[in-house]
Amino acid sequence: MNDRIPDFRVTLDDRDLTAILRPRLISLTLTECRNESADQLDLALDDTDGLLAIPSKGATIHLYIGWKHLGLVDKGSFTVDEVEHSGAPDTITLRARTANLIDTFRQVEEHSFHNTTLGAIIEMIAFRQQLTAGIADGLRDVAVKHIDQTRESDAAFLRRLGKKYDAVATVKNDTLIFTPASRSQTVSGKQLPTIIITRQAGDGHRYHSAERDSYTGVRVFWHDDKHGLRRSVVAGAPGSAKRLRTTYATEADARTAAVAEWARIQRGLATFELTLSVGNPLLMPQSPVIVSGFKAVIDSVEWLTAKVTHSIGAGGFTTGIEMETKTEEAEVEREQQTDPDPGITGVTAHWHDKVSHQRGEELAGTRAKTKALDHRYASKQTASRAVKLAWANIEERRTIIAENGDKL
């Protein structure tokens, strides 16, 4: 049946070589990445008759993959940078990549940017690297008051910009692409289609979850020049927030940093790796994915692809995907300069164990002026844990208020 026949098309320097390569194909592997790593194409070809020419490094390969009954999907252009001939049996192996930011953008630069936009900065870098700029609409008009690129390569500078704005920079088809790390959109802002995957389509999977130090949010400090204060903002919740070391010049920069770091923490809370026995050429980095037929905790997550590996060979056409949790932009609140529990020196809670009939009260802090928790707990242990957490939150808020009130 036609619905299980993999298909591909390969051109080399605009010459269609598909008919020549099809009977010689041993394996085709395409790895697509979201970060600054290059996308990579590996082709292993049978040369037992010795008639296959070895292409020169620097040649351009354009690849399309798919299924015969569904058509092909354009996967873009790659530059040949490694060629190998081995045997016996004689085999030619080609490795081609898209531009790698780390390898290509190594020249140290010195630039200062004032009262500009993120889009203008990306366009300048693209022009310097002889590329077209492709920046997502949501990032293009972001105001940048001031930023310096001091003895820093464009690759390092792009990584720094990506971390600050929770974005990723890649080069595909001679275009420098700068897009939000948590969004499933094309550069033009078009939503990528959601891919639905059932357990039956999978050939192997691995789910991993981590608490990541149980952070509830991210706290970032900034200088309030108008009032001569050091203040803070929180993305997420303040209970057990991660503190960034940098103190920012403006509240806007602090808010941007808080949102970006909180998004990174949330994306890492869970990962899911899945191999599809029937490859899906539409899958690419940033594709939103919904899965079903696994555990409820897996099926309930909105997943975002970070890395995709397509393979065509003797085993047919398979696709391996690495996914992480899809996140939404967090709300950011400026922390207030008032104590929510003035004068309180401790927290108490009552407990009643119905099995042992024992009851009692737990205290955190001191008894001079206590605040009682409303809930009556079922054991001494749960009451003790509750008062310790409540008192720690009060102390943390007071510490932040004191820190925010420090004069510059």
Strand content: 35-45%
List the domain count as a whole number. 4
How many strand units? Answer: 25
Report the end-to-end length measured between terminal Cα atoms.
Answer: 74 Å
| General form | flat
- What's the mean pLDDT score? 85
Radius of gyration: 28 Å
Q: Would you tell me the structural class of the helices and strands? A: alpha+beta
Which stretches are low in confidence, meaning pLDDT under 50 for 5 or more residues running?
none
Helix content: 10-25%
Main sheet characteristics: 13 strands, mixed
Q: How many H/I helices?
A: 8
What is the element layout, followed by pairings?
Blueprint lengths: L5 E7 L2 E2 L1 H4 L3 E9 L6 E7 L13 E8 L3 E16 L4 E7 L3 H4 L3 E10 H11 L3 E4 L1 H4 L2 E11 H12 L1 E6 L2 E6 L14 E4 L3 E8 L7 E8 L4 E8 L4 E8 L2 H17 L2 E7 L11 E5 L3 H4 L3 E11 L2 E10 L6 E3 L11 E7 L6 E7 L4 E3 L7 H25 L4
Please supply descriptive tags for the structure shown above.
408 residues, four-stranded mixed beta sheet, 4 domains, Phage tail protein beta-alpha-beta fold, Phage tail proteins - horseshoe like beta roll fold
